[in-house]
UniProtKB/TrEMBL annotation, chains A, B:
Residues 35-54 bind DNA. It comes from the Bacteria. This is TetR family transcriptional regulator. Keywords: DNA-binding, Repressor, Transcription, Transcription regulation. Residues 12-72 form the HTH tetR-type domain. It comes from Hoeflea alexandrii. SUPFAM superfamilies: Homeodomain-like, Tetracyclin repressor-like, C-terminal domain.
Amino acid sequence: MTRRTFHREPEAVRQNDLIAATLDSVAELGLAGATVREVANRAGVTPGLIRRYFDNKERLVAAAYRTFIADLIETAAAGCGDGPAHTRLAGLIRASVTAPVADGRTLSIWAAFIGTVNSDPVMAEVHREGYQAFRDLVEQLVGECLREGGTDTSQQTIRQQAIVLNALLDGLWIEISMGGDDFSRVDVVRIALDSTATLLGIDPAEFRE
Amino acid sequence: MTRRTFHREPEAVRQNDLIAATLDSVAELGLAGATVREVANRAGVTPGLIRRYFDNKERLVAAAYRTFIADLIETAAAGCGDGPAHTRLAGLIRASVTAPVADGRTLSIWAAFIGTVNSDPVMAEVHREGYQAFRDLVEQLVGECLREGGTDTSQQTIRQQAIVLNALLDGLWIEISMGGDDFSRVDVVRIALDSTATLLGIDPAEFRE
DNA sequence: GCAGTAATTAATCAAGTGTATAATTTCAGA
DNA sequence: TCTGAAATTATACACTTGATTAATTACTGC
C-alpha cells in the first residue's frame, strides 16, 4: 500500500484553502458539521495538516469567521464607488440587498457564527472588530448625505439615523437572504432605496440609480 | 451504594423542563454545548430519560426551537393589547425592542437555531411555521393603521410596507440585543416608534405612548 | 397496606471528535 | 544528482457524543 501523493503549497494558499473549506462546511452542514476531518476532505488534505497551520480548531474557526466578515464588508463597501454621498450610499444599499451579500449561503454562515458569540469570547472579539467597520461606514455616509442635503444635523441625530438605517439594512438583508418572501417579482433594490430615502428625509428621486 | 432518589413528574412538566434546560444550554454554551448530558444535568435528570420523552436529540432540539419561537412571538404580541391599530402597533414595537424580547440571551438562542435552518430540513420547517405568524401579525397591523389614517392603500403597498417595517424591527431587535451600541442613554422605544411613523407616513405624535 | 405498572436510573456501547506524533514524501539548493 | 529540511500523510489515542438496555425505584389503584 503506497501513500497518497501530494504537492506542497505556499503557506498563504493552504491557509486560504482551509478557511474556504471551513466556510463551505459551515454553510452546507452547519457549524457542527465543520469537523476537522470534513474540512480536511474538502481541502483535499489530511486532518493532521490542519494543525500545522492552525493551533486549534478554535483558531481555524475564528480565522474563518474573520475573513468571512472582512470579505462581506469589503464586497458591500465595494458597491459604493465614488461620487457624491447620495450615490455612494445608494451603492452600499444596493450591494447589501443583492447577491452575493444577500444570499442564503451567506446568511447561514453568518448565523452559525453569531450563535457562538455569546458563549465564545474569541468569537465575540472577532465579531466586534468586524461590525465596527460596517457601522462606521454607514454612519459616515449618512453624515455626508445629511450635510449634502443642507439640513443642519447634530452628531447625535446623525448617529441615531445611522443606527436606524443600519438596522433597516440588516433586517432587509436577513429577510431577503432567508428567502421566505417571494422577492422574485419585487424590486428589492427599489424598496430598500425608497425606504432609506423616507427614513433620512431625502428626495427619493436622487436615489434612483 | 444506593441509587439517587427521584420523583416522578407529569409528562408535560418533564417535557417543559427538558426544553427549558435545552434552551438554557444553548444560550450559555451554544448549540454544540447542548449535549444530552448537559441538558439532563440542568434538568436534574439522567441522560437516558430524555429518550423517553423525545425520540432523538434532533426532536428535542426541534421542540425547543418550536416553543422558543412561539413564546417569543407570544410575548411580543402580548404587547399589543387592544384599542386602535396605532396603539396596538406601537405596543408591538415597544415589546419588540425591549426585554425580554430584545435581550442577549434571546438573540443567542435565535442565532444558534437560525444557523441550522439551512442544513436541517426539520429546523427549516419549524422556522417557517414560526415566522409566518409574526409576519402576518405585522402585515395586518400595518394594513389597519394605513386604513385608519385614511390613505387609500392597495394590498400590494401594504405588503411592501409590512416587509420594510418587519425588517426594521428585526434589525433594531438584533442591534439592541447584540449590545454593541450603548443604548443605555438612548430611548430605543422612541427611536423605534419615530422611525416607524416616518416609514409609514403616520403622525409621530399618535405613536407616543 | 400491597401489587403492578410506569418512570427513572445506572451502566454500557459503538461511532465520531480533536489532538498528538512518527513515518514518509516532496522540493529547493548545492 | 544528491541531500537536507520542511510539508504532508498515516496511525493512534483519549475523550465525548448519542443511543441502548436492564435493573431499580416511585407512585397509582385496589
